Amino acid sequence: MLEFLKKMTEWVLQKEEEMAKECKIPLEDIEKQIAAVKEKKEKLQEECQKNIQELDKLLGRLETIKNIETIKCNRS
Questions:
Q1: Percentage of residues in the chain with pLDDT exceeding 70?
Q2: How far apart are CA 37 and CA 23, in angstroms?
Q3: Average pLDDT rounded to a whole number, residues 45-59
Q4: At 39, is the secondary structure helix, strand, or coil?
């Protein structure tokens, strides 16, 4: 399904590019699309950054647990 959406998006962009070459697409429509994509990109960046921070916390805790276990096992 994702591949289908990518192909459809590419097709639409090609058609819009052709229209732009013939001056048949309003500049404001393109600006709206650019603004929408930038907004989506910013939201995704924020979400990904939060997820990365959570994963970093998990990794830190797991490393601590590993170190505790290593020290405990080495003393036995």
A1: 97
A2: 22
A3: 97
A4: helix
